[in-house]
Specification:
By secondary structure, the protein is mainly α. 64% of the residues lie in helices and 7% in strands. The strands form 2 sheets. Strands 1-4 form a two-stranded antiparallel ribbon. The longest helix has 28 residues.
C-alpha cells in the first residue's frame, strides 16, 4: 500500500485555522445580529471582541493562502479544463444526487494531479475569490464606518454606505455559512466517511 501526499503542511494549517475562525465568526456574528439581553447568547461586547479577533486571524490566513497559491502548486487545481463546463459539472451533480447512493464510481477521482472535481473548482473559486473578498471588504467598512461612502447606488436605489455594507456582510456571511455546512457533508463522501478528513489532518491518503 503506497501513501500519497495530497495536502502540504501550510495548507492543512490554513484550512483548520480558517475553519475554527469561521465557526467563531458564525457564532459571534449571529450573537451580535440578534443581540437581546433576554437571550442566552454572548454579550455584545464579548461577541464583538471575539468577532474582530477571529476576522483579523482569518484575513492574515487568507493572505497566506493567496501567496501559497501564487508560489506553489495549489492554485493550479482551481483552473477549469476542457470538458469541465458544462458537461463535467452536470456529471458531478448527477453523482452527488444519484450516483453516490447507488455506489457508482466517482466520475472524477481524487488524484495528486486533479484534487478538485469541476463542481468543486467553481464552488471553491467563487468562495475564495469572490465571496470571501466581499465579506472582508464589507467587514472592514463596518469596522471603520468613517471610511464607508455616504451613499451607495445600486441600480435605481440609493443606500447609506454603512447600511449597504451591513446588508452585504450579512448576506455573504449566510452564503458562506451554507457553504460550510455543505462542505462538511461533502467531506464524508470519500472512499470512507473519514478518508478526506484524515487526509486533511495528515496530508496523505493511502492508495
Amino acid at each position: 500500500m503506497s501513501v500519497h501526499l495530497f495536502y502540504p503542511l501550510w495548507l492543512r494549517l490554513w484550512h483548520w485555522v480558517n475553519a475554527i475562525c469561521f465557526i467563531i465568526l458564525m457564532i459571534t456574528g449571529t450573537s451580535m445580529h440578534f443581540a437581546d439581553p433576554g437571550t442566552p447568547q454572548l454579550d455584545f461586547r464579548t461577541a464583538r471582541i471575539l468577532h474582530n479577533s477571529g476576522a483579523l486571524i482569518i484575513m492574515i490566513g487568507y493572505a497566506v493562502y493567496l501567496v501559497g497559491n501564487l508560489v506553489g502548486r495549489n492554485g493550479e487545481f482551481y483552473r477549469l479544463r476542457k470538458g469541465d463546463l458544462p458537461g463535467g459539472v452536470l456529471k458531478q451533480a448527477r453523482y452527488y444526487l444519484v450516483g453516490i447512493f447507488r455506489g457508482e464510481p466517482h466520475p472524477f477521482p481524487h488524484t495528486e494531479e486533479s484534487k478538485f472535481n469541476p463542481a468543486q473548482k467553481i464552488a471553491y473559486a467563487t468562495v475564495m475569490y469572490i465571496l470571501f473578498p466581499l465579506l472582508t471588504l464589507s467587514g472592514v467598512m463596518l469596522f471603520l464606518p468613517e471610511q464607508a461612502p455616504d451613499r451607495v447606488q445600486v441600480l435605481t436605489t440609493s443606500f447609506s454606505g454603512v447600511s449597504f455594507y451591513a446588508f452585504l456582510h450579512t448576506i455573504v456571511g449566510y452564503l458562506l455559512s451554507l457553504f460550510m455546512v455543505v462542505h462538511i457533508y461533502l467531506g464524508t463522501t470519500g472512499a470512507t466517511v473519514t478518508e478526506l478528513y484524515r487526509a486533511m489532518l495528515t496530508g496523505s491518503k493511502s492508495a
